[in-house]
């Protein structure tokens, strides 16, 4: 099943993009390898700003006054462009996953407004050349424009996929701000704390949320858990039914509330789907790992795991799948003889180098392995020694 999936190197990155209807950013592994010629558009734009801000008002262009004003101005502008190119090239190679690197690659994406960009550039070049003999300032502008044009033409056109809006995600309510007045009767306030490395700068963030928790609903879930009766995992059909019941029927208000808070964090932090999925994993990793009693296999409903704040690999995976489902991710449960994990599919920000492919809805979709136990596992990372060929897949939804 997983013949084409190999354990990848550790990849910890993510670029700034909106979390809904957005385009996929470039693979960060490619940012630091951007050809120098593809930096020309950005360098030319920055050189124009610096020329008008420094060279002209402060007469810093007088590099060779013996050769006359026009040639001195032109040589100063060219020297400025070369210096800006050298600094930009150094920064992109030294800091490939910084927001600066993303900005460079966004300008060069070769899609969307590419035609308008080039048309405007050509018009600007023509105007600059026609005015060269009127004022010397237009000569370097024409040169900068030509260099930017060459840079644009060097970029291959590759369409970036668009992450479609998802009905489940769109229907998530605003998160509830829990206060003392809500904790009445069987409603208790339950707090969750976790840390996650997310965002373009890959910094550790601490989060805390508090949600209303209906203890009657917890008791009801415990009573109707499919593992209370024999046969919950006797064969593939029974396992599929059990997973469906725990994940889909387990979309209780408390689970939806957790997803709503995670979505709000994504909006506030302006992180992409890759980091949102990483945040889900970080949330689940905070739960205490606890094996089931000997000879008793028990997969908790998500609300049970949230209430107990502990569980083994199957409990944590069911919880992660339920949150992924509420957030609109396409997901797969992965089950072997001694372990359970999951995989999610996404567009925005997911590095292709970490993916494997499955046919879904007539399309070849990318999926990413998610280890739900332990800590500090990122989406796409596979623990050493994990025999992924032994996992059986169960589609969620």
Descriptive notes:
By secondary structure, this protein is α+β, with helices and mostly antiparallel strands. The chain has 2 domains: 28-154, no CATH class; 167-395, C8orf32 fold. 43% of the residues lie in helices and 14% in strands. It has 13 helices and 9 strands. The strands form 3 sheets. It has a 5-stranded antiparallel beta sheet. Strands 1-2 form a two-stranded antiparallel sheet. A hairpin with a 4-residue loop joins strand 5 (330-335) and strand 6 (340-345). It starts with 27 loop residues before the first helix and ends with a strand.
What key attributes describe this structure?
13 helices, five-stranded antiparallel sheet, alpha+beta, 397 residues, 2 domains, elongated, disordered N terminus, C8orf32 fold, 14% strand
CATH class of the largest domain: Alpha Beta
Separate helix tally? 13
Mean pLDDT: 76
Strand composition percent: 5-15%
Provide the number of structural domains. 2
Assign an overall shape. Answer: elongated
- The gyration radius over C-alpha positions equals 27 Å
* Class inferred from helices and paired strands: alpha+beta
Major beta sheet, strand line-up: 7-8-6-5-9
Topology order in helix (H) and strand (E) letters: HHHHHHHEEHHHHEHEHEEEEE
Largest β-sheet summary: 5 strands, antiparallel
User: Based on DSSP secondary structure assignment, what is the total number of beta strands?
Assistant: 9
Helix content: 40-55%
CATH architecture of the largest domain: Roll
Give the low-pLDDT segments.
1-29
Q: Looking at CATH, which topology of the largest domain would you report?
A: C8orf32 fold
- Could you give the distance between the termini? 20 Å
